[in-house]
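Changelog-adjacent note: as of this version, every example in the card shows the full chain rather than a window. The one below runs 316 residues end to end.
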Amino acid sequence: MVEMPTLPQIQRARQRISPCVKRTPLTASATLSERLRTNVYVKLELFQKTGSFKVRGAFNKILTLKPEVRERGVVAVSGGNHAQAVAYAARSLGLRAVVLMPENTPRNYLDATREYGADIKFAADVRSAFAEVAAYERQGWAYIHPFDDPDVIAGQGTIGLEILEDVPQVTDIIVSIGGGGLIGGIATAVKSLKPAVRMWGVETEGADCMSKSLAADKIVTLDVITSVARTLGAPAPSERTLQAARELLESVTVVSDIEALVAARFILERLKVLTEPAASCTLAAADRLIDQFAPERHVVLVLCGGNMPPDDLALV
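Full-length structure tokens:
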């Protein structure tokens, strides 16, 4: 059986990374509360350094490596936010970084990753990029997996600790799913301290490996990622994150790209923040789940990232 990080590991991760990351704001939203007929809050993780939650896990993993392991450098696979996070963390800690990226990665992610000082190596697609990691590991590079690593998951789980501090009355948390590390970490932290909190997962059509895997009760690998929510583009969950989803989530709601983009427009117009579809899909899912939320509930939407490719703005 694969293991998730424990609550003490997540608490230690928070101490470890606190000098390196922001404690992002969590605010109540009257607009969303009226829309969903309950008490709604937004965790503004899109204001995190590099624009997404990913730096939490990247810093925690790198900081747990022995100095002699870090010496060669770090390598990662990403088509978006994890790339920037690893590049930024490596530069902050004085390390070399290589990021393997799909050839169709949007330019904004490429430019930001390069500006943070990482070398980019292209692969035909995400699956090919993952396949090339082994060669770097044989050369001594430390691999920073985007989600299937207890230290990475523990870093992401620090968001859960912040939610409980800011909204101790929380009853429901809605989180998007790529490979499952973010929701797995948050759910582990929250349910360890407040087991009654319900965790709701969200995916978009064309980036829905977790819901398909849960339905099949085994890992299902997507041949291609077709969703506009590219940062949810993990081809498959891991045994670790699939197990966590089985044990900790109420359900996984799959919404369309259109629903996610319409939600992004609404959030931009009313909350004045620009979310990427991988974050705005949480509002689209909340609309689907509205009957689950009585007036006395307290629902947190995790807006996990704001790195919207400029070309996609025309779709909003």
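Structural remarks: The domain at 7-53+149-315 is CATH 3.40.50.1100 (Rossmann fold).
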